[in-house]
Amino acid sequence: MAAPSRLSAQKIATQLSRADPVLAQLIRRAGPTELPSRGAGFPTLAQAILFQQISGAAGAAILRRLRKAHGGPGFPPPRWYLDVSTEVLRRAGVSPQKIRYLRDLGHRVASGRLNLRRLSQQADAQVIEELTAVKGIGLWTAQMYLIFSLHRPDVFPSGDLGIRKAIGKGWGYRGLPAVSTAERHARPWAPFRSHAAYYLWRSLDLSPE
User: Fold this and answer.
1) Distance CA 161, CA 158 (A)
2) 104 catalytic residue (yes or no)
3) What is 42-148's CATH number, 2.115.10.20, 3.30.300.90, 1.10.443.10, 1.10.340.30?
4) 25, 77, 164, 198: most buried by Cβ count inside 10 Å?
C-alpha cells in the first residue's frame, strides 16, 4: 500500500468509509476533502497564541496593529518580539500573559532552541513534546500544527470539543461523549485519523441546524 501521506483524498475517504459506516455517511455529505493548509513556522504558532480566548475579529485587529508597529513586510519575526518594548505590544492589544508567551516562543526560535524546520522530520510525539515546551502552547495547538501545518495523517485531537460534539451527534449520544469514547471510535480510523477528524469538523459545518 502507498504511504498514507501520499494517498489521494478519494482513496483516504474510501478507506475511512470502509472502516466505519457512520463516518461513511459524513464523508458522503462532505465529499472527498484534502486537509487544508494553515502554513507553518513562527507566524502560525505566534498567531495561535494571539488568537487564544478571543474572537477572530479581535485577533485580526491585533495582527494589523502588530504589523503596523513592526513597519516591515509580513509578520513580525521572532527577534522583534524580544527587542520591542512591552508598551508597544500592549498598545497593539496583546495581553501581558501573551507577551510572555510570544517572547518565550521568539527566544526559542531565534536562539535555535526550537528549530521549526526540523519539526517536519520528527515523529508526531517529538513534535508535540517540543511545541508544548513553549509557554502558551498546549496539546491542542500542537495537534493542530501537526494536522494543518505538517499534514500528518494520523493525529486525533480527542479532547477537542467539536470532535466530541460531532461524534455525539453522528453516533446518537444523548450528551457529550467522553474523551475515552472519542478515542474508542477513532481506533478503526487509523492511519488516517487526522482526515477523520476533519470530516467530523466538516459535519458540524454542514449540519442543517
Assistant:
1) 8
2) no
3) 1.10.340.30
4) 164
